């Protein structure tokens, strides 16, 4: 009688330990993580830019299908490839970077299909305003990085926001689109 009970308890403990071993913290790799925006320009072309400085962490447990993410974006690091446009984007007409030098994405709801993350839901804070957003995964993967000798997880995620929800109203009365696509390419290194 004791043997089956001991075996059951041991099996449960091993299972719990194995699940706990799956949980890990990952640091955002800034050389493989990019936050890009796209906005329609009078229905003719697409204005694009990216934020060159960002940092954050991801807590990820594939076995439990849970996670948390926190990414801080330095809005003063915006880079459209054109210095005068960057200056305008940083101005009080658009991103007000002097008053709001960072934006932040925080999430704690991961949706999975099998062992792949398909969505990450949370909030985006921009210009002091916080609204819910869901980033949908275009791809997701974890791999053993041969140079770092550590696991790296990441993917390509995107969402579309109404910029007026954050007080970015510049050009709306001229016909600029209110919708802005955010693309987050992220890789994070297991710590």
List strands and helices in order, with pairings:
Layout: H1 2-22, E1 24-28, E2 34-41, E3 45-51, E4 54-61, E5 66-74, E6 78-79, H2 83-90, E7 102-113, E8 116-126, E9 129-145, E10 150-162, E11 179-190
Antiparallel strand pairs: 1-4, 1-11, 2-3, 2-11, 3-6, 4-5, 5-7, 7-8, 8-9, 9-10, 10-11
Textual characterization of the structure:
By secondary structure, this protein is α+β, with helices and mostly antiparallel strands. The chain has one domain (23-190): Lipid/polyisoprenoid-binding, YceI-like (Lipocalin, Beta Barrel). The chain has two helices and eleven strands, in the order αββββββαβββββ. It has helices at 2-22, 83-90, and strands at 24-28, 34-41, 45-51, 54-61, 66-74, 78-79, 102-113, 116-126, 129-145, 150-162, 179-190. A hairpin with a 2-residue loop joins strand 7 (102-113) and strand 8 (116-126). Residues 1-21 have low confidence and may be disordered.
